[in-house]
Amino acid sequence: MRTWLEVLVEVVARGAEFATVALVAIGALEAAGRLVWQAVHRTGTTQSKREIWLRFASWILLALEFALGADIVRTAVAPTWDDIGQLAAIATIRTALSWFLERDLSSFEEGKKA
Q: DSSP labels for 56-82?
């Protein structure tokens, strides 16, 4: 039973890590494509570049959630105190990053409405 659980945990964690990498890659490609498009057509304004950054930030936020999920799944099976401490540190850092990115996204959206 324990072996199957460990295999399942590893598969789920690797899947979440794959999703993390895929989300960052998709966001980076989209942002780079938009920046190149603006450079070629000379339509880039500060506002449009900020919109690209914020859209990329939203991809990163989603990727951070998947990365944290992978860490939680790995730690769920027979964690040591060291594992729990590492997870707490990682979760704190990722939560802080998410909070700041989310705050920037919200303030930008409010600025667009005004």
A: HHHHHHHHHHHHHHHHHHHHHSS--HH
Angle at 114 between CA 37 and CA 31, to 5 degrees: 20
- Give CA angle at 13 (77, 23), nearest 5°: 150
Question: To the nearest 5 percent, what fractions of the chain are helix, strand and coil?
Answer: 90, 0, 10
77, 63 contact by CB (below 8 A):
no
Q: Whole-model pTM? A: 0.78
- Note the pLDDT tens digit of each residue in 21-64: 999 999 999 999 999 999 888 887 888 888 898 889 889 889 98
- Provide the residue count of the chain: 114
User: Phi then psi for 78, rounded to 5 degrees?
Assistant: 50, 60
